[in-house]
Design goal:
heterodimer, A: about 160 residues, alpha+beta, five-stranded mixed sheet, 5 helices, 5 strands, about 35% helix, B: about 775 residues, eight-stranded mixed sheet, 31 strands, globular
């Protein structure tokens, strides 16, 4: 069994570890780095619960082979905000009741961040089209859209 | 009456952790020495196992043990009908995917690899998959030849098996009046067949379960579950243990939708842990979840209505058939409970309902958000429109003329109360602009449809709660309900905060754990707000008495003169004479006086002389555009008014309405688990489509309405809302599609394909 070295920045902190080369980034995030906020829900890249931001782009970490992330900058939900200093998207989700069971929420928030970082003034249709890779079974999506719209408005 | 926090949309108490990714679910649970279990599953639907050799799997490095049928308890077990072995002790498998053995290994990958080393041979036997075939007196296969000798546990409902239908697991019947007389009085008859396919809950968190035994022979289970106490009863029964030796812990739940009650793992994972001698975790993959997560049953309804020319239904006959798969769990309970949806909304003097639960060699099915109500609303709410059409009446008027009213006695003999359907319907009609026709631009045709439904909450159940007040005026609430996203933690926090006239952040919910939190019949049947909520309220009342008893002498008065607010106990007529709660404790947090703690229990008993406690009533109004060239159904506007009694937290009630609407849209337009010869062929999100962001209308056109009708027995007049919001969406869409293009789809889903071919066969529209 050949292990490979994986070096990347995780939520602003430089990390080095050794992994089996066939591990997905999702498995390494949860298993190696102990960051349980990124969720495993379908493992086939459909539901988006595993969404993280890699070098500024939102990716489904279940579809990224961990070695592909070597040398990159990884942001998981744990790196976004704190209880004392919530990211505006996190605050908007709270204010707009944009979560229920919460399992899809970390992935949702990071997809929303990636969207707003690229397009700070999205239309409703643009929000929906960009978020369509994240499934939610509880909310019906309306309040998530409204939360994102609020953040976009405030940034303007 | 003005309340401090009741009726206010206070932020969800679980919101911060959820947006931080800090909420911990059973799927996140880890413990020392934990290893992983995977099932070796049957690849044939019905067979004798002639060879099972696990020796190579056992030898694989990293495999702790392989559990085989001989390790399982020797008697048939189950819930309601004892029809299953935990693993096939009799050497017979009855569905594709039935667990035959289980591998426990250090990692999931090793467990998966070991499965490939298990050798099995079968002698295949005939199997039956189609509901109509399975229901015959001489079907192609009798799934349980010894069915008449099985024990059943008649606690939730009586189980009646018709011996002349060998695959009948349960036949429930309820009637009133004289059906023949009713049909004879009718001016028109409307008779049709409707059907629904298997659909999956699609929980974001799949079923998962971790179990371990200690040296005392006590078992601890951490599980994604809606009811830790009912699961505990099942485990104690399966393993012959007193309840005190079973502990079930329920962390935050990544959604339930009625699928996580006595689930597919709770019975068997302890067996794996026992043999392995280590904690074992089993989590369904998404594929397993689709195929084996007990999806909602294929079901069909034959319904015959007799109606007078002024729109009064004088007779209704319903025959309902469920394909429960190879083993039942709660399925036979739903055979009975579906009738509550059928009789809970309309006043029908001559009524007959027959529900049949039928075994097949398909994987076991189970309940999904509605517990039989969606299955009744689908046929009934289309019938109401067909009646209206035949009589040339407004569909809304036909419903109005038949709604039950406050004080009526329903067919179960219970009095109808807190029925807000009339108001819910009127608000929906106004919002959807009922009566105003709209034309679409070619090739789109616009149509509107309405529906209504009544989703019951169970009676004959009980919840307990404990409330403890701490020296810093924190209120701890010990209860065993499940926070699965519906907002139970927040509702209970609001109730406790209201009782102590303090802020919600002074309330702490202690998570469900059968060793710590008292009995609760489960977060099901939309019962938790009213039932658990009332238990919590009652516990608060008792604890306040104790606080006031201790405070009274310090304030020189009697306890009946006292009130509490913001951590202070004061004399009602002299509020400037008060003490802080902390003054009732010594410096080390021990309560003064005869109680070392200020703690008390509260109980809610749902009535035992009724079949149902109360109903959530909903009215749905939907506007669609149908593309006559492609068959696509586009949603333009979704309106739903729900009568949930007093809304404890209005925004959270909106959450349920919006979520229920979209989940209902999924079952209406897209969702179908396709079974071929006993195997699910689309167990993934590519081939089983659930609604996406891009499937919803503009958010301003999703309109949740709360229609209030106070429930006299529930805390603050609140009822439930979680399930009702889902059950009537599909028939409203069917009615809207009919209004648009004259096509009536009676077999879900209303897929683009079906609509396209129906339009094509009708010719030019």
């Amino acid at each position: 069994m050949q292990f490979v070295k994986l070096c990347l920045t995780v939520n602003g902190k430089y990390c080095e570890t050794y992994i089996e080369p066939w591990r997905t980034l999702l498995e390494v995030i949860r298993g190696k780095f102990g960051l349980a906020g990124t969720k495993s829900s379908c493992e086939t890249g459909h539901c988006g619960a595993c969404t993280v931001i890699l070098d500024g782009k939102s990716v489904k970490s279940c579809l990224v082979l961990a070695p592909q992330a070597n040398g990159m900058d990884l942001l998981t939900i744990e790196g976004l905000g704190t209880r004392e200093n919530l990211h505006p998207i996190q605050q908007a989700f709270i204010d707009h009741f944009a979560m229920q069971c919460g399992f899809c929420t970390p992935g949702m928030i990071l997809s929303a961040k990636a969207l707003l970082d690229e397009n700070s003034n999205p239309t409703e249709d643009e929000i929906k089209a960009n978020m369509t890779g994240n499934l939610c079974r509880c909310t019906g999506y309306k309040k998530i859209v409204e939360a994102i719209q609020t953040v976009a408005q405030e940034e303007r | 009456m003005e309340y401090m926090v009741i009726g206010k949309s206070t932020p969800r108490v679980d919101a911060i952790d959820k947006v931080l990714g800090k909420t911990r679910y059973a799927s996140d649970f880890m413990t020392e020495g934990m290893c992983y279990g995977k099932f070796f599953r049957s690849s044939v639907p019905h067979a004798k196992i002639t060879k099972l050799d696990v020796s190579k799997a056992e030898k694989l490095a990293g495999v702790q043990t392989v559990v085989i049928p001989q390790d399982a308890p020797p008697t048939r077990l189950g819930m309601l009908i004892f029809d299953r072995y935990l693993l096939p002790r009799d050497g017979v498998v009855k569905y594709i995917g039935e667990p035959i053995a289980a591998v426990v290994a250090d990692t999931e990958e090793i467990a998966q690899e070991a499965l490939d080393l298990i050798e099995v041979e079968y002698e295949e036997l005939p199997a039956v998959f189609e509901l109509e075939e399975a229901m015959k007196e001489k079907p192609s296969n009798v799934v349980h030849p010894d069915l008449q000798n099985y024990v059943d546990l008649g606690v939730l409902c009586k189980v009646l098996r018709e011996p002349h239908i060998p695959n009948n697991a349960n036949h429930y019947s309820i009637s009133s009046g004289d059906l023949d007389k009713g049909f004879a009085e009718a001016d028109i008859i409307v008779e049709n067949e409707y059907s629904m396919p298997r659909i999956s809950h699609c929980h974001p968190e799949t079923h998962d379960c971790i179990a371990w035994w200690d040296s005392n022979g006590d078992v601890t289970i951490v599980e994604s579950t809606q009811g830790v106490h009912v699961d505990r009863i099942l485990v104690s029964f399966y393993y012959g243990l007193p309840l005190s030796k079973v502990r079930v812990i329920g962390p935050f739940n990544g959604s339930g939708f009625g699928g996580k009650l006595m689930g597919p793992l709770i019975g068997i994972v302890p067996l794996l842990a026992k043999k392995a001698g280590r904690p074992v975790k089993v989590a369904f993959t998404r594929e397993e979840q689709f195929a084996f997560g007990r999806p909602q049953w294929i079901n069909s309804t034959h319904i015959k209505d007799g109606v007078t020319k002024d729109g009064k239904i004088v007779a209704r006959q319903i025959t309902w058939k469920q394909d429960v798969g190879a083993y039942v769990q709660l399925a036979v309970h739903v055979t009975q409970n579906a009738s509550f949806g059928a009789l809970g909304l309309y006043n029908i003097p001559n009524f007959q309902y027959d529900g049949y639960a039928i075994y097949t060699n398909n994987p076991p099915a189970g309940s999904l958000r509605g517990y039989g109500t969606a299955e009744m609303a689908w046929p009934i709410e289309q019938q109401m429109d067909l009646i209206a059409e035949k009589l040339k009446m407004d569909p809304a008027e036909v419903r109005r003329r038949n709604f039950l009213k406050e004080g009526d006695i329903d067919i179960t003999g219970s009095d109808v109360h807190s029925i807000g359907i009339a108001d819910a319907l009127e608000q929906t009609l106004t919002e959807i602009e009922w009566g105003k026709e709209e034309n679409g631009e070619y090739p789109w045709k616009i149509g509107k449809g309405i529906s209504a439904a009544a989703k019951y909450t169970l009676a004959k159940t009980r919840d307990n709660a404990l409330v403890k007040v701490k020296s810093d005026a924190t209120i701890e609430v010990y209860q065993s309900g499940d926070e699965m996203g519906q907002g139970l933690d927040t509702v209970l926090s609001q109730i406790a905060a209201e009782e102590f006239k303090t802020s919600v952040d002074k309330v702490k919910i202690i998570r469900a754990d059968t060793s710590i939190t008292p009995y609760n019949a489960g977060s099901l049947s939309s019962r938790s707000t009213s039932h658990t909520g009332t238990a919590v309220k009652n516990a608060c009342d008792e604890v306040k008495k104790k606080l006031f008893e201790a405070a009274a002498p310090m304030l020189g008065t009697t306890y009946s003169d006292l009130e509490i607010k913001d951590g202070k106990i004061f004399i009602s007529r002299q509020p400037d004479k008060f003490i802080q709660i902390s003054q009732l404790f010594s410096f080390d947090g021990v309560a003064l006086g005869r109680n070392a703690e200020f703690i008390a229990q509260g109980t809610f008993y749902a009535p035992t002389d009724r079949s149902t406690s109360c109903y959530t009533y909903v009215a749905v109004g939907i506007k669609v555009a149908v593309n006559i060239k492609t068959g696509m159904v586009k949603l333009l506007k979704l309106v739903e008014a729900a009568d949930c009694g007093r809304p404890i937290n209005p925004k959270m009630c909106e959450q349920q309405i919006e979520g229920g609407l979209i989940q209902g849209v999924g079952s209406a337009l897209f969702e179908e688990l396709i079974l071929r010869d006993g195997i699910v062929v689309n167990p993934n999100y590519m081939d089983y489509k659930i609604p996406l962001f891009t499937d919803i209308p503009p958010v301003k056109d999703i309109v949740p309405i709360i229609a209030t009708c106070f429930y006299k027995d529930g805390a603050y007049g609140a009822k439930g809302i979680g399930e009702g919001t889902n059950v009537a969406v599909a028939p409203a869409i069917a009615n809207a599609v009919y209004n648009a293009v004259g096509i009536r789809i009676k077999d879900l889903p209303i897929s683009r394909e079906k609509v396209f071919w129906e339009i094509k066969s009708k010719g030019k529209i």
